[in-house]
Amino acid sequence: MKSSPTARARRLSRWVAAGLTLALVASACTSDDDGGGGAARRERGGESSEPARPRIDTDEETVEATFDVGPGVEIATVTGAEAGHDLTLVNEEGEKLLTLVTDDEGQAHFAYVPDEYLTFQTGEGGTLPTAAGSQLRPGRYTIRDESAEPVAVTEEFEVAARDDVPDEEAYDQEIGDGFGYITMRDGVELSVNVRLPGPVEDGPYPTVVEYSGYGVSNPDAAEPGSLVAGLLGYATVGVNMRGTGCSGGVFDVFNPAQQADGYDMIEAIARQPWVLHNKVGMVGLSYSGIAQLYVAATAPPSLAAITPLSVIEDPWQMAWPGGIYNNGFTEQWLAERNRQSGGEGSDWVAGLIDEGDETCEQNQAIRTQNPDFGEFTRALEDRPPDIDSRDLSLLVGDIEVPVYLTGAWQDEQTGPRFGTMLDEFTSTDQERFILFNGRHPDGYSPLVLTRWYEFLELYVHRQVPRLADGIRSAAPAVFESNFGVPGLGFEPDRFSEFADDDLDGVLEEYEAEPKVRVLFENGAGGDAPGSPQARFEATFDEWPPPDAEPVTWYLDDDGALVTDAPDGDAADTFANDPDAGQDTFFAEDDGTYPLLDPVWDLEWQQPDEGGGLSYLTEPFDEDTVLAGAGYADLWVAADSTDADVQVTVSVVRPDGIEDLVQSGQLRLSHRAIDGEIGDDLEVENRWDAESREPLEPGEWVQARIAIPSFAQAFRAGSRLRVIISSPGHDRGTWRFATVGEAGEERRIGRGGERASSIVLSMVDGVEVPPGDAPCPSLRGQACRTYTELPNRSAA
Known about the structure:
By secondary structure, the protein is an alpha+beta fold. It folds into three domains: about 5-30 and about 165-540, 3-Layer(aba) Sandwich (Rossmann fold), CATH 3.40.50; about 40-160, Immunoglobulin-like (Sandwich); about 550-795, Jelly Rolls (Sandwich), CATH 2.60.120.260. It is built from 13 helices and 36 strands. The strands form seven sheets. Strands 1, 2, 5, 6, 9, 11, 12 and 13 form an eight-stranded mixed beta sheet that branches. Strands 24, 25, 26, 28, 31, 33, 34 and 36 form an eight-stranded antiparallel beta sheet that branches. Strands 14-15-17-16-18-19 form a six-stranded mixed beta sheet, sandwiched between helices. Helix 1 packs antiparallel against helix 2 (about 225-230), helix 1 runs parallel beside helix 12 and helix 3 packs across helix 4 (about 285-295). The chain is globular and about 80 Å long. The termini are far apart.
């Protein structure tokens, strides 16, 4: 029998209370494991005098190789070779691209090709000793065992591109209820766990997939997206990315092979007889939210819709925000990926192996080939061109299915840059963006979750959304157990006046609504401070708001922000403070934090006097809403060849409380931008090595520092504050590896030919309720008592 709504409600109480908190907490990675280092060397005997691309000797005697090569999407994996042998990748022109020394199991994995030929020892957890190179390009290759006598050479094989889709017969696979495996186009098997809401014979069921490198296929615990969807009547399928969990293959963060796997697993799952309409949706927050965007960009024909929550835009800028290395959350997250993707890196994987899962055990052997992602990412000081294949702002334009995306401007883990790609979804007609101040897990808060369910019902289940009474009555207790405040619940059904068989009528009304919903002052909309409830909201047709008007404030004398540029040349100065980059706004700054507590214990510091500059507008005459991206247009001089600068936007209220709004950072050598800044006020920096421009000590340069999107009400009597300083203080889990020595001067011009300013977007027509929020209460936004920061004039 199918489970009843009441039974599903009881399961909601049991499972969500026990599982949702643990799964959400698991998404906040706090590990600071260190990865190992691989050994790199030239040809034996010391430095090679050979050219950068040596060629094979076509007259050399060779034999046919007996080891196995598994070519895939921009990768090629060798198994069954002799341990410690030199395997050389050769292109069609006979050029030697790279030699890998096999590990103790006779394995090697080709994924990156350095600009200059070298030899590298695999199996020690390191990475190639150069960031200069590219992914393995699609094309035809051979591999030569140059340690064999005579040299053993494989037959020519083809490395595929992401969009080289196999014949449909490849997806005719049987996937049953429970734990199992799906085979990808290159033969790699991914571990999968299917949970049906009832017996197979009572299907088909609306079905959603959750795909990531976490424990999504763990048969003993579901991730939050799958957990909630299952309790709402959906069949759920958790699929572990290659190189994670019990899946085979080598792990590589968001690489084209992972993206192609997403296409393959969607097509294989959708063909199962228990899948309603033979179309599936996708669910998940953070890792499994980001993965949805990559998968949807490959355009699987059997994908119905996606619901990505709390996502990033560009992995490089996540690791290098503003060109400054994030040695906080990003470094910790990568360290945890190294650990968990290692052989038996998770307890549940070890448990399955102990129970006799031979496939899972065999799939762990290749994990010795996993690179050290922390070491690799730390080396990418300049953005490599190949990162474009993982840049979601360039990929989401290929997404054709309906999209429901949510994000928090102050997300303490994945950050605010998701806002820059919201206008890039150009191939789908149906987008829903729910945007708010808040935290990383707030995609599962009630207001957002209600519309999430509504969206899945319309585009995956294809029925008029009706939330079951049993689920609705059980929800407050479950939400309270997770978010720590009473009184939370789902929104009322919005289409109750429509008949059950009038899906077309509901879709017509739904699709006529504005696609952007902005929730303001999340955390202050309920009786308890920090409750995930908004005080008011606004809707827009696009993001950034199409009717927003840019407003410019200029830096002036005595710490003023004024609307007219001052006439005379002047400057203020502050001292570089690298230590500030390691300071977050948490009182207990130990790398962990209470993810789900309603309010956080905050110790949001401003720079010491002389360590930053502060500028304030006059009090606003009327309620004002700033919404969209912005930038600081600064004239800067430093007594060093490079410098990092942060610009922080806050609101100073009439009651003397200051609320953090948003901040942006820039390494000034990365100040080159791509074209002019448009009406959206988004700054497009050129992060590549060729565009880097070192500073001339003492010389003035113009730098535009991006302020990521936000939406904030400034009530009458409030003032806009801008602080310019070294990076730090303003994030919950991000830390910045700031360049320069302590005390180095950074001068900021104001007025005359060097009139520095900040440009933000103002929107009209948003009704702001009276009264400011308690401090603390606004989710994701630190607060403090306003303290003056006197500026120091440059001599």
